[in-house]
Amino acid sequence: MYEHDVIVVGAGGAGLRAAIAANEAGADVAMVSKLHPVRSHTGAAEGGINAALQEGDDWELHAYDTMKGSDYLGDAPAVETLAQDAPEETINLEHWGMPFSREDDGRVSQRPFGGLSYPRTTYAGAETGHHLLHTMYEQVVKRGIQVYDEWYVMDLATTDESDPNDRECHGVVAYDVQSGNIEGFKANQGVVLATGGPGQAFDHTTNAVSCTGDGHAMAYRAGAPIEDMEFIQFHPTSLPSTGVLISEGVRGEGGILYNNEGERFMFEHGYANNSGELASRDVVARAELTEVNEGRGVEDEYVHLDMRHLGEERIMDRLENILHLAEDFEGVDGLVEPMPVKPGQHYAMGGIEVDENGQTCVNGLYAAGECACVSVHGGNRLGGNALPELIVFGKRAGRHAAGEDLGDPEIRTGYGDDVEDETETELPVAPGEAGLDTSGGVAADGGVTADAEGILERTVETARERVDRLMDKDDGVQHAEIRAKLQKAMTDYVNVFRTEEGVKKALEIIRECRQEYQDVYVDDPSKTFNTDLQQTIETRNLIDVAETIALGALVRNEFRGAHWRQENQIRDDENWLKHTLISWDEGEPSIFYRPVILEGENKTYEPKERSY
Amino acid sequence: MSTQQAEPESQEAPEDPEMKGAESPAAEEQKGGGMVDKHAEKRAELEGETVHIKVFRYDPEIEGKQEPRFDDFHVPFEKGMTVLDAVMYARDEYDSSLTFRHSCRQAVCGSDAFFVNGKQRLGCKTQISELEQPVRIEPLPHQEVVKDLVVDMDHFYDQMHTVEPYFQDEDTPDTDALEEQRQSPENREKIKMSSRCIWCGACMSSCNIAAGDNEYLGPAAINKAYKFAMDDREGEEIKEHRLRILEQEHGVWRCQTQFSCTEVCPKDIPLTEHIQELKREAVKKNLKFW
Ligand SMILES: Cc1cc2nc3c(=O)[nH]c(=O)nc-3n(C[C@H](O)[C@H](O)[C@H](O)COP(=O)(O)OP(=O)(O)OC[C@H]3O[C@@H](n4cnc5c(N)ncnc54)[C@H](O)[C@@H]3O)c2cc1C
Ligand code: SF4
Ligand code: FES
To answer: Which terminal residue of chain B has fewer beta carbons within 10 Å of its beta carbon, N or C?
Structure first.
């Protein structure tokens, strides 16, 4: 058994920042990550970090833009904390040597971005995430923080009081990918989950293969509610074969979208008569899919993004990177042919419910980064707002876990007297309808009231038994089959367009996957670097996460931010200024709602009419 | 953990009939102007066909896999298919024990550097239509093989850590006052290429010197040090300290400018040039000459 004060799970932007903060607060902190830190998905971010740094800009403007962008589903205390702390945190990165792009006077550059009233996106070329990740990893090396890399965290060691608010998290169970050994990691003060997004729930995503929602699923099974999962951002221009992102910059420079009839459909079919290709992400994504659905897509799948008319010189000057991406990942030369693009899953606005200090309702359990939902993005994330979230809330979670007093949070977590119960709401389908088997290493289930060490030992035992079971079984279904089925169902039915019928169909398939998973087995008998085993465990997590996305999408019968519902295409503030919360309750998901906090420090953010 | 050497010569499994008539590794493709049209033609040719890949297999634990061998897979070709797509298909459809690292699929995580047709390349960044068939996919040479295409990266990480890869400032301005360290756009431009490294290890694997001298810092670590040493935000004193690290017996002077690192780097970092520049800096500073 390993023992530390604070255990950080995941070593992307949020995890690294949390570990550094905990270390600075005096804690003995260790990071446990299934990938070496520099392989984390934060490295893929291109655009930049929003922070009000210049004169003429201020945090209140940033907060206002973010609340508006969130379609009034962001919680003001979190949004304001983000806007207030982002400048200092961004400058801090500069002090750590991050190579930001520079102005002639030597100051960091900032550029305009969608939905921002001021050019406040701070960037390092088109590789901001790469530099952010490496700069923070360097600081981890400098501080000598212990990193267990290529250790896969399977579960949390949590007590099992019936009310999750009374539970306590004492550590994690992980297995060493290289040797197959399963060990307990005891956290004397706290566990911070920073495991990134769940993009692999969809078969077409800009996210890395490692983005399997492990943190979401572990927290969920330990009793922490999962919040607003129906809000999934789809980016309109990703390459069809891989999902690799083609930056919004192409359209910004004048790139044009065409259907298979050569029509400039954004105008010709009236999707956005004013801004055309430059309409907001969700509008363009919906337009593209409408074209495909109405038979005007290329090869019934995608549309064309053409930049040839910009001329070689301009392309090489401003979009060189795009040429490489199209060539390397799609085999297409953007100078001589249009690039194929279609919408791809890009970001999860929702996640593990936390307060401003990163804490969940389970004592000692924290979450930060894309896996968490402190609710800064609400229904729709503005470009450039995820990276500041990592550093601002990663730091707060690290400090709080290390025992620093950050003051009382305004955001509440867990089931409490401020929530609206599911019994008051009519649900189109019972949340726990089909076979939800709870076996298979659910730490929170079953008589654990021993001391911390006992709990950890028992969780390790359960994990070992689970792995033995998977390895000993000789035939059955392979995870790849279930995963593919799940991803297809999500893409077919819980995509940009959603109907009640479709989402129900998705839920049915998800539950079929859950059934089939009972029969899953691992074919590779080796203990050494068994990716078959790892992906099998990840697939179970994806099933849990996909179910929360689909359930959220089913119950929220309105159109807000990225969540479009055919039956109700207006934003329904009267009924829906509230967060969807799903918690794992004795083996079944249960749903409740918590009102949005629109009152900020100095003002209340009044919801305004959306206009395109 | 295994100590199997991934030297390409020693991997040939002679009893594998498929291997006997195997052609020598494909000629290395030159990136450049004429490439695109040739690919379009090749792609068209491949449409509806399968691609033949030969993948190196080894597992220290499993009897029957302890002896390294190549497995043949025939994967249906799809437009845009990369080497990584092909091995993923082979794993998901034919043999779930086929093991390799990968994550981002977009050339930023640096985890899928393989030895493909005799050259270090990122699997995700290499179009299958660019390659001669059968496509031979092996682990990075000169690194210990853990299993199949997975190599032990510890030595690579250790070398990276040896150069003190973190910013060391002398007097950082006040963070509360939001004051930055100023850096000219020119100086930022100077370190730009060196800052693109994704730690894939391709350069180290291609370097003959590193293969013969385990203590040689190697191109990636030296490039990492270059990034800091050339950054004007660090002061003169620390720059000298950095040059001393690079000047040691197994540092920059070991490089014999063979350019193999520069040739394979998927991020086009001019590694050899950076190493030469550091040698010149060291001479200027009158540091010890080995
Ligand atoms: C292509 C792309 C471009 C983007 N561009 C921008 C941008 O310009 N600006 C912006 O603000 N945002 C951008 N975003 C969003 C932003 O980059 C991500 O939301 C953010 O980087 C997520 O960081 P993270 O630290 O939460 O997770 P990640 O960086 O994904 O890290 C997750 C970590 O958790 C570890 N992990 C996961 N599961 C386990 C487990 N079971 N056991 C152990 N370890 C585990 C992984 O190894 C990894 O270290 C972009 C996203 C994408 C996909
Ligand atoms: S310098 Fe290039 S080849 Fe070497 S590790 Fe970095 S990216 Fe890879
Ligand atoms: S998979 Fe990340 S570099 Fe290839």
So the answer is: C
